[in-house]
Amino acid sequence: MINRSIKLFSLTVIFIGFSSVFAQSLLIREMLVVLYGNEIAVGIILSFWLFWTGAGSFLGARLLKRTPSRLLFYSAYIIFSAAVILELILVRNVRIIFHFEPGELISPFAMFVISALTLSPFAIVNGLLFYLCIQIASGKLGSGGVGFVYSLDAFGDMLGGIVFSFLFVFLFSPLKNLYIIMMLNILFIAGIFLFEKISIKTKAGISAIILPFLILGFMLKPIEKGLIKREWHGFDVLGVKSSLYGDLLITKHENTYSLYENGILAFTFPFKMDSEESVHFPLLESGSVKRVLVIGSGVRGLLSEVLKYPVCEVDYLELDPVLISFVKQYLPQSDRKALSDPRVKVFNVEARVFLNHYKGDKFDAVLLNTPAPYTAYLNRFYTYEFFERIKDILSGGGVLSFTLPSKEDYLTRDMRDFDASIYHTLIKVFPNIMLIPGNKLRFIASSSSEFLTYNVDILSRRMVKYGLKTKFINKYYFKMKFLPWHIDYVRRILSSTTAVRLNYDFEPISYYYGMKLFFSHFRSRLSNFPDMFIKINAGVYFIVIFLFIFLIFIIGKNRMLGACVFSMGALGMSSVVLSVLGYQIVFGYVYHKIGLISAVFMLGVSLGASWLYRKVKHPHIRMLVYSLLLSGVYMVCIPYIFRVLKYTFSAMEIVSLFLPFFMGLIVGFIFPLANRLYNKDKGLSVSAAGLFYFYDLIGGAAAGVTLSLIFIPLYGIFMSAGIISFMAFVCSGFLLLDYYRR
Predict the structure, then answer these.
(1) CATH code, domain with 288
(2) For a disulfide at 33, which of 179, 263, 589, 593, Cβ 3.0-4.6 Å?
(3) Are 688 and 138 within 8 A, CB to CB?
(4) For 366-387, how does the pLDDT look when each residue is reduced to its tens digit (9 = 90+)?
(5) Cis bond upstream, residue 373 (ω within 30)
(6) What's the domain count of the chain?
(7) Average pLDDT of 259-270?
(8) Using CA atoms, how far apart are residues 563 and 694, in angstroms rounded to an integer?
(9) How far apart (Å, rounded) are the C-alpha atoms in residues 63 and 66?
(10) Which domain, by its residues, includes 587?
(11) Poorest-pLDDT segment among 214-218, 480-484, 528-532, 655-659
């Protein structure tokens, strides 16, 4: 009977972990759509998710001293299950509640407030439920209960991440996904009671509770339509589609269509002027136009313009195949025809992956149509290493073309730094750069200056040579765009801005300048937030970490255990962030692989906690010291492993999964070990486990925010890993001192 009870409880904990991460993945994705997410939004959302989950555990530790009754536990479980639907409805109505119009940019302060308020209900219940599980397990298993629950919860987390990333995201809408999760939990709870020896009256009551949830399933479609209509009020929404890479939505205004990816305007079509500029400006500067590579947004009219030239082949890279099929039905006839032209080859692959593996004939032009590097992901398309790879695949007179944010008449300081960083990075690879000013600053770069020209007559003759028929691009348009004083003005500003740093894969400084530019859009004290950190030497953070942990050491040993758990949470989150970033640098952004990285980390956590629970009978402080030292050394090694294996793709595929898995083993070992050591000194204390879980999640939240927003953009991956690992070294040192002192 006891074994059956433990098995049922184990299944419950796994279910809770599974549902938690599944709902977390989906709700964070929905929040990013609402907040037009970049890394700033990701950092804020994730930090509040972890904070409120930890707060739920903290509240449980403070308020609930006795083992919870069955009624309390399953009531909390039912609230947790039902809250996922309510949370989604709340997220979808955020812009209406806070009076933001669709398409309106949301300030970081507003992101902070919205995330804090919106994520709190579900996350707090989630953290409370974890603590209740620990209380029940400790009542059954004693001091081993913490490791038992931590292991099973991590295993459920892993399953939830894999199922969401590899299966459900393809099959159903967000609302249907959360409804399925809710019903699985409700039916699981009901099954536990219905198969027990209870009265028919009680069974009827349970069935009556389930009935409204079942009826809700028949109302999902009108609820989904109502949510979209409210969220996009004032827009004529033609269609909505979810894919592996995000949510797509298309609107229409008169004869113009707009595609939104994850709430952000991707492009508008047909927009003839922009399409003609994007294609004809660079192609008329190339020595030959036989082979062209188009990276992103080719469906918005670029392909049909490229095919006006005597090209032999056009390679079009578009990561999301759903995007093409979704947009195709609204395209003009000429653009639909271009997609089926035998000269056009469509590759649904990430650009960096394509470039890393490409060994074919050289291209005469590369048209880069990705957004500006406001995020760490987009930054990879504007680094020295990326430009070097583009140079390798271009023919002698070939050109690279892209645009950056600008203004017709004046470059602000933040915009100047942003553009200058990429300009100086580009000129280090391509010595010949044409600048075409405007509301967007167009760069046309080449290794050769033979064919590059601002001469209107020469460009006009080239148009005649190719027999081009255009609506906007002509001799007079060239004269309007190629004003010598304007070009010289912009070039002089960018050339003289030499204080900016160059942009590299492992030192993504342009991401920092992009963050500054983003903050500058808002008139508040926060607009100067990024400037506060660029003046701080990295050594200051080492001193602050040392003094902080030294202060905790003075207070007492058991406080040091909390500091170790905090460090462990920071190291775990950092290993995932660095592994994801390293994977992106080498392979590009592949959504399901990133989900897999998180999943193997949680598998490591589960196995590490399980090993401690089953094998370690007599925990010792030296185990914790050695584990912290090992995790610190390992953290320092992660960036070097990525650099050494950067071009060994088969090895990198394996290593990118092994790195977070091994760190997960250490993290999973440390958390229950710290709890066992505390109980060894103070006696069994379930509330301590709740507090340690709070420290664990707060450490993860702090590391996620500081890495994404401060350390990686400013100091690069190597220094960031060093700062985080230093925390583990200091904790282990003071723990050892405390041990010998006693």
Answers:
(1) 3.40.50.150
(2) 263
(3) no
(4) 999 988 888 777 888 999 999 9
(5) no
(6) 3
(7) 82
(8) 11
(9) 9
(10) 536-742
(11) 528-532
What mean pLDDT comes out for the span 588-603?
72
Cβ neighbors of 327 (< 8 A, separation 6 or more) are 250, 259, 269, 299
Domain shared by 199 and 334, yes or no: no
Please name the amino acid found at residue 726. F
As a whole number, the mean pLDDT across the chain is 85
Among 423, 424, 406, which residue's Cα sits nearest to residue 415?
406
Q: What is the pLDDT, as a whole number, of residue 291?
A: 96
Instruction: Tokens for 361, please give them.
Output: 């004939």
Residue with more model confidence, 483 or 142: 483
CB atoms within 10 A of CB 451: 18
Closest CA to 712 of 443, 505, 553: 505
pLDDT of residue 1: 44
| β 432-436/394-405 pair status | unpaired
Q: Which amino acid makes up residue 616?
A: V
Q: Is residue 416 part of a domain?
A: yes
Which H or E run contains 598?
helix 591-615
CB atoms closer than 10 angstroms to residue 521: 10
For 204, half-sphere exposure in the C-beta direction (CA atoms, 13 angstrom radius) is 3
Provide the token pair at 522.
């808002």
Tokens 């695949």 belong to which residue?
Answer: 393
Clarify whether residues 482 and 550 are in a common domain: no
pLDDT tops 60 at residue 590: no
Q: From residue 384, how far is each of 69, 515, 637, 659, 720 by CA, in Å?
A: 61, 19, 23, 26, 20
In the predicted structure, residue 596 carries a pLDDT above the cut 90: no
**Helix 591-615 vs helix 557-587: crossing angle, to nearest 10:** 150
Residues 432 and 551 occupy one common structural domain: no
CATH of the domain at 151: 1.20.1250
Q: How confident is residue 278, by pLDDT bands cut at 50, 70 and 90?
A: very high
Give the pLDDT of residue 295.
Answer: 95
DSSP letter string over 652-689?
Answer: HHHHHHHHHHHHHHHHHHHHHHHHHHHHHHH---HHHH
Same-domain status, 586 and 442:
no
pTM: 0.85
Query: How confident is the model at residue 416, as a pLDDT?
Result: 93
Task: Please say whether the beta carbons of 609 and 672 come within 8 A.
Answer: yes
DSSP 291-306: EEEEES-GGGTHHHHH
Could you read off the pLDDT of 55-84 as tens digits, one per residue? 888 888 877 766 666 778 888 888 888 888
- Name the residue type at position 658: F
